[in-house]
């Protein structure tokens, strides 16, 4: 049933309580579905697998990773359009994103170096698994923190 | 410390009604939000939401724009910089009153 939405002003304590409930609502609604994070994690994991293409022809090495990322994105976007961020990220909100990007770079680089050194096929695969787990676990946590950080309703 | 009367004076009468307060709280963390999404989140009718948005728009706290997307016309609502300032100031006043 619809509320009347007349000038139903509450007292300060009740208003703050309603605001806190709205903040929780914001945290929930601004969260992207898990399938989005799985898609992103798959795309990021592709970077760790690039060293496995070393023996392939040059043109295939160049085309295969972006083609694979495109296929992943198309599969996940098939039934649901990709959600876009409507939150404006500023200042310290960018720090966790930067940390994740640096970690992705470090894991990819380390995995690549180990593969060059030892040549075990499972090293890039393990790197890809680590990157996948990183994005799937850290992504939603970062997003929850963003939603809270963007709200001035803080108690 | 701000006295209760000073804090009460800082309460914004345009924002204070609970649904307008909730509208501001829903709009604050995002660049803009679709009218229909706001309506569903607040569980109100189109006309009731329009009425509240109209009050906020008149005060210069909210802007509305119409845009076509995938063959459908949608109304997007945005909290203006002065709306953000007024909302934050209102929250501070509410906190002062409950401190």
TrEMBL record, chain B:
Task: Please name the SUPFAM superfamilies in this protein's record.
Answer: Winged helix' DNA-binding domain (SSF46785)
Q: Where is the signal peptide?
A: none
In terms of superkingdom, the source organism counts as Bacteria
One of this protein's Pfam families, by short name?
HTH_34
> In which organism is this protein found?
Agrococcus casei LMG 22410
Official protein name in the record: Transcriptional regulator
Q: Which classification does the entry list for the species? A: Bacteria, Bacillati, Actinomycetota, Actinomycetes, Micrococcales
Winged helix DNA-binding domain boundaries: 20-97
